[in-house]
Recover the amino acids of this structure.
């Protein structure tokens, strides 16, 4: 892989990987650090990336690995510098455009509630949810990225969806 | 039923809308990352780099072997390999397995000529940590030039590589996004002569699949792009996506079907799949092994409790709490939730006195860690007191 090809990879996938790092860490400072560590590790392994059919899921896998290895570092830091509100850095797809009828039906409050409840899920449910909904990986891709059987991915996604639906009901939203 | 599906769809929509985010890292962060490229000594260790460095280091070769006729401006495949300083590949293109093609296809500003294809001994061994799945390689030589005659940037120019080309054999019946040069231990070498870019690609030998249609795709992307080509699941045929906005050329390779080796092809696909899944299978194996242990341990505990041997069942376990349950209708109910309100930490258990054995019932629950591994068991033992109350003991036992 040439430097240019790697730069191209960053250009194509950098935003996705960064958004995922932001989901994991919950703030810009840590997200940037995790993103940088992920890309540097990817650089060391660029031969493997070249041979992989799906560089995005490989990069996401590296991000998950880095996050798990260094979670304590990020957790400690979060206590010192309180988590900023996620909403500030989020952009809702199509927010600047005219909302579609589907989007118009979904209130901002509900969106925020789903984000909040997803963020409070245990990590083993939260990560597959982000990979599935935010990164749009398939069940098989998530299974390979997280090194777990695809059946486990399905059951975790199901459990997460059920938990979120239940929380929404508790907040008075009808299913 | 219908309403449920509707609400599930709505939840799906909601989750997608809530979790899709458009974010970009700071430009400076990306620049900082890329600055490490030059400073990183590990970069030179990549297998294909070695090939490319060798190709770039070779001195300009006099084009004495230029053929005359329609392709007068081009080197042929063997000459291109010579120009790259690789005699073995050049010999393979002059050998009996070589097929000279010369087919031209154009897209946008580019003309792509498939010069030829051949099979040869695998020349560069894979990394020590990896095993080669085949002993021979398929080589294909391609020439790319601009239609307006503007020279392609040479490999030493800064502009070299700004335009990507993904060139790979594809095999009828095998999903192209799964089976392409990237997954089949492939690589390439480039050489620019007289403003024409010559690329020789190499990957695991695909001649064993000669009884299927073999293709060569050429797209202007860094990796295989699923939008560029169609794959028909039912027939296995691969075709260009006519609506794709970009280069998506597709050559059909004229290979003698008698070169096919069905047994070798089957063995290769199996080995490739195993090698691709090695890591995940290994990890999944570890997880399921641990979970199997938890299941066995849990069965043993329940069996001991059926036999009334509570002492043995709770051996090495820690008693977390004891409480008295009151009979509700026909059952005792125990619900719990851990402080962090995680999913698996909340539960409700019903114990029916009708099912008690010697006045006792029990349940075992698994406690997972973040990796999905069962770390410990929660053992709930309910002893009927005979006065519409029962004593519940909650134990925690590590999985060993």
């Amino acid at each position: 892989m040439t430097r240019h090809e790697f730069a191209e990879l960053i250009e194509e996938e950098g935003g996705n990987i960064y958004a995922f790092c932001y989901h994991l860490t919950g703030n810009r400072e840590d997200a940037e650090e995790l993103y940088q560590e992920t890309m540097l590790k990817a650089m060391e392994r660029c031969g493997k990336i070249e041979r992989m059919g799906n560089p995005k899921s490989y990069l996401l896998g590296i991000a998950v690995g880095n996050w798990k290895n260094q979670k304590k570092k990020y957790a400690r830091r979060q206590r010192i510098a309180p988590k900023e509100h996620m909403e500030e850095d989020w952009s809702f797809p199509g927010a600047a455009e005219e909302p579609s009828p589907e989007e118009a039906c979904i209130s901002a409050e509900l969106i925020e509630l789903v984000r909040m409840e997803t963020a409070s899920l245990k990590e083993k449910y939260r990560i597959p949810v982000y990979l599935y909904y935010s990164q749009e990986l398939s069940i098989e891709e998530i299974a390979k990225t997280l090194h777990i059987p695809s059946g486990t991915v399905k059951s975790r996604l199901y459990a997460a969806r059920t938990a979120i639906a239940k929380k929404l009901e508790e907040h008075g939203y009808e299913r | 039923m219908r309403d449920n599906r509707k609400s599930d769809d709505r939840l799906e929509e909601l989750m997608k809308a809530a979790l899709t985010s458009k974010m970009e890292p700071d430009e400076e962060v990306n620049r900082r990352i890329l600055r490490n490229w030059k400073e990183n000594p590990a970069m030179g260790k990549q297998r294909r780099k070695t090939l490319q460095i060798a190709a770039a280091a070779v001195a300009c070769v006099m084009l004495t072997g230029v053929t005359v006729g329609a392709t007068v401006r081009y080197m042929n495949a063997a000459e291109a390999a010579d120009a790259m300083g690789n005699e073995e590949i050049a010999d393979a293109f002059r050998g009996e397995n070589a097929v000279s093609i010369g087919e031209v296809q154009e897209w946008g500003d580019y003309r792509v000529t498939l010069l030829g294809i051949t099979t040869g001994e695998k020349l560069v061994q894979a990394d020590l940590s990896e095993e080669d799945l085949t002993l021979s390689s398929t080589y294909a030589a391609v020439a790319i030039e601009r239609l307006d005659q503007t020279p392609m940037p040479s490999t030493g120019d800064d502009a070299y590589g700004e335009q990507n080309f993904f060139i790979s054999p594809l095999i009828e019946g095998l999903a192209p996004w799964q089976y392409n040069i990237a997954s089949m231990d492939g690589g390439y070498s480039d050489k620019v002569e007289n403003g024409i870019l010559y690329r020789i690609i190499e990957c695991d030998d695909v001649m064993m699949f000669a009884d299927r249609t073999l293709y060569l795709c050429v797209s202007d992307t860094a990796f295989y792009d699923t939008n560029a080509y169609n794959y028909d699941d039912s027939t296995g045929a691969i075709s260009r996506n006519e609506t794709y906005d970009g280069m998506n050329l597709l050559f059909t390779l004229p290979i003698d079907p008698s070169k096919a080796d069905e047994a070798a092809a089957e063995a290769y696909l199996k080995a490739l799949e195993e090698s691709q899944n090695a890591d995940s299978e290994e990890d999944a194996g570890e997880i399921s092994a641990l979970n199997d242990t938890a299941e066995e341990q849990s069965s043993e505990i329940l069996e001991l409790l059926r036999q009334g041997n509570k002492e043995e069942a709770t051996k090495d376990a820690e008693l977390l709490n004891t409480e008295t349950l009151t009979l509700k209708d026909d059952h005792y109910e125990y619900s719990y939730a851990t402080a962090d309100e995680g999913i698996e930490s909340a539960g409700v258990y019903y114990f029916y006195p009708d099912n008690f054995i010697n006045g006792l019932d029990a349940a075992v629950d698994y406690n997972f860690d973040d990796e999905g591994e069962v770390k410990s068991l929660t053992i709930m033992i309910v002893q009927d007191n005979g006065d519409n109350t029962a004593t519940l003991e909650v134990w925690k036992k590590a999985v060993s």
Summary: Chain A touches chain B through 73 residues (CB under 8 Å). DSSP finds nine helices and no strands in chain A. The mean pLDDT of chain A is 75. Chain A has two domains: 1-82, 96-175.
